[in-house]
# Entry
Amino acid sequence: MLNISRKFRFLCRPCVTVLVVPFLTFCISTRAQTWPSAPLPEAPKPQPPVTLKEMPLNILKDQGAIWSSPVRIRDKDLRYLVPLGLGVTLAIATDHQAMTEVVSQNPSFNNTATNASNVLVAPFVAAPVVMYAAGHFVDNDHARETGILSGEALLDAAVVEQGMKLIFWRERPGVDDSKGKFFQTDVGWDSSFPSNHSMLAWSSAAVLADEYPGRWKALGIYGAATGVSLARVLGQQHFPSDVLVGSAFGWMIGHYVYKKHHRWHNPMSR
# Structure
């Protein structure tokens, strides 16, 4: 029975990769529909601003695009899927070693890192309310749109993350000597894969960085999101593959929401 169990777990790891990687294609397949390959000859025409009333329907459309993405896989997508698949596979294969031999298991250090992840993720979660309120009080369409779209990205990320947790049912690093076994139904909603903090941080960060482009802005925004992901591993809350998939999915969801739904354009650029 022990040999059969080990063989089953060995076979499950590539299965997890096969299940995860197709979702990564949703931004590839939808990006072609929302991002022109060449600059438009004329400046974009004014459009009505994004409103809160549109968010529920937009979220439903977003979820449809995300979960149906596997049916849109094409040969050209392999240049993205292959590296992503290899990265996820390598991360899963080395998760146990990373958590037992590389990451500290000192409770004080782990608690500090966990608290740091909670502090770092807070601004990303608060961004929708802060930006929308700021835009409302000063009558700034750009800030209002940023608040709405970052909120939409966060909700999209939360739905996808919870759905994946209930599909993969992965044990957390603190269980069973950090073996990180998948498909353990007893973990329920507390599944480790993917990282919730990482997914929320990167989905919000992608919208913020797209709405307010700039090298130093992007460095600060994505630097903070990276800090969230690293802190979840250092806190022994998630495996490296959990935060890798969570960060990648979060970034793609946020980037997709911006490309699909943003309307504000700087009048000074026309």
Q: What stands out?
A: Residues 50-66+76-269 form a domain with the Vanadium-containing Chloroperoxidase; domain 1 fold (CATH 1.20.144). The first helix runs from residue 2 to 20. The chain has one domain: 50-66+76-269.
